[in-house]
Amino acid sequence: MGRRSPAGRAGRAAPAVLLAAALATSACSGQDAAAPAPVSTEQLPAPSSSSSSSGSASAPSSGVGGPPAALAAGLALRGTPQAAQDVVTGLDVPWSTVVMPDGSALVSERDAARVVRVSQSGTGWQAQQVPAPGPGGSVPDVEPRGEGGLLGLALSPAFAEDGYVYAYTTTATDDRVVRMRYTPGSADPSAPGSLSAPEPVLTGIASAAVHHGGRLAFGPDGMLYVTTGDASAPSTAQDRTALTGKVLRLTPDGQPAPGNPVEGSPVWTWGHRNPQGIGWDAAGRMFAAEFGQNAQDELNLLEPGRNYGWPLVEGAVAGPSGGPEDVTDPAFTAPLVTWRTADASPSGLLVTGDAVYVAALRGQELWRVPLDDGRLGEPERVVDGAHGRVRDVVAGPDGSLWVLTDNTSRGRPAAGDDRLLRLPLA
């Protein structure tokens, strides 16, 4: 189950050693070897000066007149999730979803390299492919293999003016970020529209069969944040000149964003294995969910220039390249929450007005971590395995949580999988 780390944010302190020992025993045995650590009531720190200079999540964004719509929609949500209901079924390895200004949504299908538009039709919802210039209407130049393909999507903060849909893709030679212009269909609001040929935004991210990261999000500062995995080369996560094993911060045109820790570098944070979820609270604090290897998954508070430890540290225990001394090394930033990998394997993340939600694949769960005025509570289960693997969670256009399942990539798909679900809040 999830546990709060009592180590604080200044680094890895002595209390974390005791927690790490208990959790390491738990991870190896498959049993809870100790009761969860007490929840710290210490308030999370405010964003650092280099990140808060751009404004909080509730403040106007640089150049776009306000926070990105997806961020604002999430922060407006509060309440307890209720029973899940189908929005659409029959999706093929869905990976990411973004809500459009008109209340429809786009979903990426990883292996088919397709984008699907989910829109209202009569009293229900329908899913239609949005044609792009590739074979069969797919996004061109995408090379699905292993965990790769068409991954994260994000809408430009100026989408109403420029129509850009950003995507993280894997190709035959690299991982990259591209953008495509979305053109609405006919006067019929249910028409799917179309996508232009992709325009490169960032290229040259090393690729492999697994560990792509692949999540995209525009922050409250209007900059594009990109998560990258270690591409099966763990040591590159500690190489600040490599693009892998990082969270990157870019301008919308793909240049290193001004105010990054190292001028001219896109690197925002480093020491990551496979981060796949990012989001911000109303104060502008940035959270990230990250896959561990065999011991622990993480929920982190990301602060610019910080090193999150991989492969020397995994969660609150030593990583495959580290030892006990690394667990307490103040050079590495400790996670806020850790889970056994069997309970999580986290992907998408959503911050609402009262919680951080984490989609869990292997754990077949949607985790809710209460968030109250900068204080975190104990993680809570929401769906308890009822829908299989959970890939993504976003703020739906109807004030509910919208959740993507991922049972057709691996696991045991049920009839109708994969699904976009809605969980009303009460």
TrEMBL record:
Keyword Signal belongs to the record: yes
One Pfam family in the UniProt entry: GSDH
Source species, domain of life: Bacteria
Biased composition (Low complexity): 44-66
Region described as Disordered: 30-66
Annotated ranges, domain Glucose/Sorbosone dehydrogenase: 91-408
Region forming the signal peptide: 1-29
Keywords of the record: Signal
Descriptive protein name: PQQ-dependent sugar dehydrogenase
